[in-house]
Amino acid sequence: MKKIGFLSFGHWTPSSQSQTRSASDALLQSIDLAVAAEALGADGAYFRVHHFARQLGSPFPLLAAVGAKTSRIEIGTAVIDMRYENPMYMAEDAGAADLIAGGRLQLGISRGSPEQVIDGWKYFGYAPPEGQTDADMARHHAEVFLDVLRGEGFAQPNPRPMFPNPPGLLRLEPHSEGLRERIWWGAATNATAEWAAKLGMHLQSSTLKFDESGKPFHIQQAEQIRLYREAWKAAGHERQPRVSVSRSIFALVDDRDRAYFGRGGQSSDQIGFIEENTRAIFGRNYAAEPDVLIKELAEDEAIAEADTLLLTVPNQLGVDYNAHIIEAILTHVAPALGWR
């Protein structure tokens, strides 16, 4: 059995070729797709966060709205770039959104990827201390965020407050019990996956990672997952870790599918440089008739290792068609692979 959700980047463009032509469209259609996915029996609605881009950039209003409109589906991010975040304010926003959703948030956070502008986090008022990198800063922000989510008091109360205080040191409010145990880390390397395990974060592994061995992407990713689980066990956590992978998967079941994706998927991995001197490997896409798709997916070792699969969706094709993509996987592919 696997949890199966969708991952949307929330792209929008004023082009007449797009069904998502404004930021308002992207946000409202994201809510509608989450509602539709829940009705279809999907397990998760996840959203990617990019700043300075015509995409979804402010996750918590969206997560809260999805939480208010749904009742069962997990609601998450994959991922929030912690270089841009004030961890204190983020903890308040996350607590509020999680309470609205009834404890269904699954927040993916990370060091982030190259953005639309150079050192965009500087415009948000952040800079790494001397001798540290922006990745170090992101991990520090993440550690502060995790710490305050525990809900322990740390702030000295005013002896003459405007409103009565509970006794002792004060914590951030609103606090949502259990949210600390539903934080995930998006890891691009084996080392950061192991670091996340030590801190008790779940693992999100996408269709990109640093090329650390030259092996096929799905094998490198499966090895990363196994190293993560070993580190989790060594850390002595009592709860079970979760692992998600994301894939672009399209089952060709009607003429629309064949028109959009009938030329097949990206059948092999790709190598590129996401940063200077950082060689990365990008996993393949899948697009085929269901019987072919089932055979191909059965050979993906990383999907086999993960308990959660996030289907990246082409959101600019509209809510109805993206719901169809999700339904096709749930109906024609997942049962044959033992995911349902």
Question: How would you sum up this structure, described in words?
Answer:
- This protein is α/β, with parallel strands linked by helices and 340 residues long.
- The chain has one domain (3-337): Luciferase-like domain (TIM Barrel).
- It is 36% helix and 18% strand.
- The protein has 10 helices and 13 strands.
- It has helices at residues 23-40, 59-69, 87-100, 134-148, 190-198, 217-235, 255-261, 290-298, 301-305, 319-333; strands at 3-8, 44-47, 74-81, 105-110, 183-186, 202-205, 208-210, 243-247, 249-251, 270-275, 278-282, 286-288, 308-312.
- The strands form 3 sheets. An 8-stranded parallel barrel has the order 1-2-3-4-5-6-8-13, surrounded by 6 helices. Strands 7-11-10 form a 3-stranded antiparallel β-sheet, covered by helices on one side. Strands 9-12 form a two-stranded parallel sheet.
- Helix 3 (87-100) links the parallel strand 3 (74-81) and strand 4.
- It is globular.
Short description:
This is LLM class flavin-dependent oxidoreductase. It contains ten helices and 13 strands.
Task: List the keywords.
TIM Barrel, eight-stranded parallel β-barrel, 340 residues, alpha/beta, 36% helix
Blueprint of the fold:
Elements (H helix, E strand, L loop, with lengths): L2 E6 L14 H18 L3 E4 L11 H11 L4 E8 L5 H14 L4 E6 L23 H15 L34 E4 L3 H9 L3 E4 L2 E3 L6 H19 L7 E5 L1 E3 L3 H7 L8 E6 L2 E5 L3 E3 L1 H9 L2 H5 L2 E5 L6 H15 L7
Parallel strand pairs: 1-2, 1-13, 2-3, 3-4, 4-5, 5-6, 6-8, 8-13, 9-12
Antiparallel strand pairs: 7-11, 10-11
Helix pairs in contact: 1-2, 1-10, 2-3, 3-4, 5-6
EC number: 1.-.-.-
Pfam families: Bac_luciferase
GO molecular function, one term: oxidoreductase activity
